[in-house]
Write the structure tokens for this entry.
Amino acid sequence: MSVVLADLAYWQETTIRLLVGLIAVLLPAGTLVYLFLFKMMSFMQSRLGPMEAGPYGSLQLLAEVGKFLQKEDILPKAADRLIFKLAPFVVLISTFLLILVIPAGPDLWFIDVDTGIFLGLAVSSISVIGILMAGWASSSKYSLLGALRATGQLIAYELPMVLAVVGVIIQAGTLNVQEIVMAQATGEIFGFGGIGNPYVITQFVGFLIFLIAVQAELTQPPFDMPVAESELVTGYLTEYSGLRFLMFFIGEFATAAIFSALAATLFLGGWYVPGLEPTDNLFNVIGPIVLLGKMLLVAFFIFWFRFTYPRFREDQLQQLAWKVLIPLSLVNIVITGVLKVVF
Amino acid sequence: MSDTADTKQMAYIAAQAADARVNLEIETEGMTLNIGPQHPATHGTLRIVVRLDGEQVISADPLMGYMHRGYEKLTEVRTYPQVTTLVNRIDWLGSFANEVPFILAAEQLMEVEAPPRAQWIRTALFEMSRIANVVLFLGDMGVQLGAVTPVFFAFRDREFILNQIEAVTGGRFHPNFDRIGGLKDDLPKGWIDETRGVLKRIRNFCDEIETLVVGNEIFQSRTRNIGVIPADIGLSYGLSGANIRSSGVDWDIRRDGGVGLVHNELDWKVWTHPDGDSFARFWVRLQEVRESCTMIEQILDGIPSGPVMAKVPRIIKVPAGEAYVETENPLGVMGYYVISKGDLTPFRVKIRSASFNNVSITPWLLKGVYVPDVISILASLYFILGDIDR
């Protein structure tokens, strides 16, 4: 993108970047909601899902958005008004910042920084603040419980997620996401270089830990204690309605899409498909599509777990994080480091 | 008192006072959380006031009566045949089972007995309403624990049972089919064969639940050793049905002295579980659905021919007297104490419904558990709001 935009004025460039960013966030999120939340979930539960709006209910999403726009924007009387209104934006900000680091082709990126993955994992934690703000400002006990659960959970799972990524960083030898993709495209598995080296093969432990941590980070079942409909009446979302609820909703699924894309980038080779030179200009065209496909593959697993499992209890979740995932990811780092030195 | 003892005592008092002061200074305020009356987990309007310390429950008080509809009083201004319409709505998921004990009590007072064919069909419908009720529990337990998928399977397969009930009685939820002295109608043509197919579906559903829910590690870790009810405590709170059987008490009215129904002529087993926890309650109910299928299959094979209605007067006047009949309903023991003064209407009816007693154990049971377990324990106790408040 930087090549295309080189000759434009600053305001033109910024506008284009914003529009592309909006599309890059909303399109995958909408795809996930329609494909998985509406259709796959319905088929798993032996029902059809939306069928009326458009062919096979493909316009259902627009109908839902229209419904949320029409709804009354309710502010609880005792709420902290400013913080209550601000919270959904904070959650969305973290989502929009996270997409910046994910490249979609050899020349397609928003920002190309040398600490890309570090930046991405750092900004992804901003959403916790938004959730805590929402829970506290709602002045509802259920919301408060939900927000505190969310905070504890996100802190616990940030760590295994980062540690799982460390394995990838050691193997690629760089923090730059674009270079991690390149390293996977040009790498070889113990001397065999036919398909590059997608790190899911050498880092499968890290990949599993990353997926579990993403599941917890997204507060999806089996880690959905912060929203737990049957216990906390959707936790920190309880008091939200209309447009603000929609923003949380978009934030949730956009984050799911972007984390899936991040997992695809770090472990499945990102925009690269074997058979072509990684510097081939063609990747600037098919790269986004390849990335979308890989993202859907990862998201499929995330949503599959979501519809299948019951939820953990809060203490069981912390035990899983601190007693299983973190030691496991530390062992993974040690083994990766040793193998990196040996080979 | 010696000097040493005195100093010891003083030291003890001083330490206690210091402790008390520290406790006063750093004591955190507990939180009162109203679970209900409008809450997804109470599927109705039960309100549980819990005092929380963090997420741990200090005390829990169930407050009932939000759905009180006064059925006991209403029966006093209804004739006997009209009462079945009311009592259908007590446990609305297994509604035919509500009619049976009342009709049996009225029959006892009138000294009539339903013909054998009516008794066998009654038993079949009784067990079918148990399936319709408990199948939904098996799915709902998953929802309370956060897995939404099982409940859709439950709704899907319950529909077939409801269709069969509708084919006989004309009503899916409120059959109003039981009459003093027999049943309203005989079975429709082809019903017996269709029901066999439906029972096969229900068995498949049970297998599905067994693999989807019972075998799930998260489900087990959420229910094993959670909400343990020892047998003596359970009995002292008046628990009944699967709740007490899952504490190891081998007690089922269908087998031990039930009147009017033909369970004793069938070959079946009363399932118990020694653990008494949430998992045991789920597991026992799952086995009971299978056992009900076995019973209905035997009934379909062995149903005798003959009339479905005994000779009763057109206008029913029940002679003066008192009768108490209880049966093993889907939720537990349900009993009707009917007092008649020889009128068209009962003089007084006392309804003993199972859920009222099953919920009464919650203050004891919920002490010290975490909020998520409150929900899973309530779900595993399995109450229907109509059955609590009547």
About this structure: Chain B has two domains: 3-63, 71-389. The mean pLDDT of chain B is 86.
